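MarR family transcriptional regulator: structure tokens wanted.
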Amino acid sequence: MAHWTFLTNHAHVLLCVSENPNVRLRDIADMVGITERAAQRIVTELEDAGYLDRVREGRRNRYLLNTAMPLRHPLDSDHRIGELLAAFSKSSTP
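Answer:
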């Protein structure tokens, strides 16, 4: 059976950051199941596209999400990442 998921690694990284804005890249990589270098690349891509901002706090980074940004695929572009994050938030109730 082929291994696949419904969400991309980019979405998984956003979900990790939304749950813990102070999360380390090492921890993101472990949670998503990717290398630390891949996690760093994804965070940089998300930052470059305006989906998150990285703020340096001492020796750590804090990530701020721009939840008003639209999803990138044309089929989903009328939805915002805030909706995705809310739907998959661990603190939301069904």
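The helical segments are 9-19, 25-32, 36-48, 81-88. The two ends are 30 Å apart (CA to CA).

Cheers.
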